[in-house]
Each structure stands twice: as structure tokens, then as C-alpha cells.
Design brief:
The chain folds into 2 domains: 4-225 and 287-339, TIM Barrel; 227-282, no CATH class. It is globular, with a radius of gyration of 19 Å. It has 340 residues and is of the alpha/beta class. The protein has helices at 23-35, 50-60, 78-92, 105-110, 118-134, 169-178, 189-205, 227-241, 247-251, 256-263, 267-272, 276-282, 288-300, 319-325, 331-339, and strands at residues 12-16, 40-44, 65-68, 71-72, 96-101, 139-140, 145-146, 162-165, 181-184, 214-223, 283-286, 305-310. The longest helix has 17 residues, at 118-134.
């Protein structure tokens, strides 16, 4: 089933909150991406506040969509997320998209956050956000209960799109059932194709048009003309995620030594033990031609919006090189190929 979003070969850019860039420079990168033909720019929430960092990106741009990919829902009460999203959408003239997910339980416990059943929590969270934006009387769930929440002014879009991050089958099905879009991550093109099918099937089972659920996929990108340096950069990404509970199923490799060294804080040692094929499975790396070819694999897998997530190569964050080197380019020609 072809998505309604495949009319253009769209491309997004994600900027990590832990890149060390000042907010103003993040705005400049967003404007550069807009000028280069990108369709969307996102903030990846690592240690910073993704929603706050959307402000300078909105101020610096005029037409590109701006959003979070993703913001940790557990950090914010859903009423606050709805209020902030409404203001960002108003400031952008209707260009904001709210991407939500949940960090793993260990990470949220580190933040002192209460533990809730993740599927129930995120489903109720989305319901509260939508109730606030629509001006409904309130929401009464098992985790969240609210009355009517007044806003200072009517929201620009009461139906502001809410996307959900999903890795496992249960969250993929939930996203297909309730979300405006799903945000995939850490997936090879083959796994992305399986995820696309799961989301579309769930949407259809819920009586929705599966083509209305946008499929976004974050693609870690190590751009470098030096193939060996790009491959090293790809391997350096893996220890960041090796401790995630879903890592063994996502990467198809137990990564026991990598996990052990990462727990001990020996990141250099952990990187040395990363099998190259694990990094190759979900990181686009190499020169512009190699990275572009990999992005095309995600499109063929059914991804509507691949989102480039530049990662350091030998310690440098190559945002400017990625924006110019992988710009969408001749969109009409590429779109015709995809439609065929």
C-alpha cells in the first residue's frame, strides 16, 4: 500500500541536543536545511530540552516543518506538553509536529521519574494532549486525570499532528492505531520494512486509512570521504544504544562484551568490540553517494520521510557537510522514479 506522503522524495534533518551547539547556531542550521530543500528539521532530545530548542529553529525558518524526534514524554506532564506544543505551532504558523517517546526505564529512574506501564502511559498521554488542544472537558484515565484546560488563545491547529516513537511490535501497533505518524530508529531497511507493515496493518485494523499514518525513520549518518573514518564513526554509535533493553532484538547480536565495557565506562574499548556489520545495519556511512544510496533503501522499504541524524566523525559533528552533501536536489526526477 502506497502512502499519500510518497508524492515527493522528502528528507528531514535531526540535530542532537547534545551536539554542544548554541541554540542560535541550531537555528542557523535549520535555516540552511530549509534553503537546501529539506522538508523538516527536528531536535533529538538527549540531555537538553527539545521543545525549548525548537524555538530558535522556528524563528530562523519560514516554511520547513520543525519538531521533536523525539521528546521524552515522561519528563513532562501531558498538559504542559500540550500547552508548549500549541505555542510552538502558533509561533511557526502551523509548522510544528510533536514527536513523543519514552526513554528506557533505567534512564527515567535516573531522572527520578515514576514508572508506569509504557503502552498505557503513552496512549493516555496522547489522549490528554489532544483533549487540551481540542478544548474538551477533560480526560479520565488510569494514569492521567484532568479537567478542562484553558489556553490563553485558541490553538493554531487543534489537530496538531502527534507522532510516536516505536521500536517493538506492541508500540508499532499502538502508533498505527492512534498516532498521526510513527518515528522509527535504529533499524536496517529490512527491519524498517517490517515495521512499516506492522503500522499499516494496525491502522487498517483500527478502521483508519493506513496511508494517513506518516512513516518517519531516523537514519544515523556518518558522512566522510574517508570510508575508514566513516566506518569508525558508525561503530562509535553502537555503545550508546547497547544498554537499551531492545538492543539484542534490534541489532541481532548479543553485544555482551560491548555492553560490559560500556557499563564499566570504557567507551573506547566498547567501540573496538563492535562488529562492523552491526553498525552497518542501521548507520548510513561513507561519501555522499554511499549515504544517498542507503537513504534510498529506506524509501523503498516504505519510509515516507527519512531523517538524517548526523553523528560525529573523528570527533567532529558534520552538520554543514550533511546538509549540503545530501540535499534533496532534483526532487521531481526522484519522485517520478519512486511513483513508478
Amino acid at each position: 500500500m502506497q502512502s499519500r506522503y510518497v508524492q515527493e522524495a522528502r528528507l528531514g534533518l535531526s540535530i542532537a541536543s547534545n551536539s554542544g551547539l548554541p541554540p542560535a547556531e541550531m537555528g542557523e542550521l535549520a535555516r540552511a536545511a530549509e534553503d537546501a530543500g529539506y522538508d523538516a528539521v527536528f531536535v533529538a532530545e538527549v540531555n537538553g530540552d527539545a521543545l525549548t530548542l525548537c524555538h530558535p529553529m522556528i524563528a530562523a525558518t519560514e516554511s520547513v516543518s520543525v519538531g521533536t524526534a523525539i521528546a521524552n514524554a515522561a519528563l513532562r506532564p501531558p498538559v504542559l506538553a500540550a500547552k508548549t506544543a500549541a505555542l510552538l505551532d502558533d509561533a511557526s504558523g502551523g509548522r510544528f509536529r510533536l514527536g513523543l517517546g519514552l526513554a528506557n526505564a533505567a534512564k527515567n529512574a535516573q531522572f527520578g521519574l515514576p514508572q508506569h506501564p509504557p503502552l498505557q502511559m503513552i496512549e493516555e498521554y496522547v489522549a490528554v494532549v489532544r483533549a487540551v488542544l481540542a478544548g474538551e472537558p477533560g480526560f479520565n484515565g488510569g494514569i492521567f486525570r484532568t479537567g478542562r484546560v484553558p489556553l490563553d488563545r485558541p490553538p493554531h491547529r487543534p489537530d496538531l499532528p502527534v507522532h510516536l516513537a516505536a521500536l517493538g511490535p506492541r508500540m508499532l501497533r499502538l502508533a498505527g492505531r492512534i498516532a498521526d505518524g510513527v518515528i522509527l530508529n535504529l533499524m536496517s531497511p529490512a527491519r524498517a520494512a517490517e515495521a512499516v507493515a506492522a503500522v499499516r496493518e494496525s491502522a487498517a485494523a483500527a478502521g483508519r486509512d493506513p496511508a494517513d499514518v506518516e512513516i518517519v525513520c531516523v537514519v544515523h549518518t556518518c558522512l566522510a570521504d574517508d570510508a575508514a573514518a566513516a566506518a569508525r564513526g558508525a561503530c562509535a554509535i553502537v555503545p550508546r544504544y547497547a544498554l537499551h533493553p531492545a538492543a539484542p532484538s534490534l541489532f541481532g547480536d548479543p553485544l555482551d562484551t560491548v555492553r560490559e565495557l560500556a557499563r564499566a565506562g570504557d567507551w573506547a574499548g566498547a567501540v573496538r568490540h563492535v562488529p562492523q556489520h552491526v553498525a552497518d545495519s542501521f548507520v548510513a556511512h561513507g561519501d555522499p553517494a554511499a549515504c544517498s544510496a542507503r537513504i534510498e533503501e529506506y524509501r523503498k522499504a516504505g519510509v515516507d520521510l527519512p531523517v538524517l541524524y548526523p553523528v560525529p566523525v573523528d570527533g567532529a559533528w558534520p552538520y554543514a557537510d550533511v546538509i549540503t552533501g545530501l540535499a534533496p536536489g532534483e526532487r521531481l526526477n526522484t519522485s517520478t522514479t519512486l511513483a513508478e
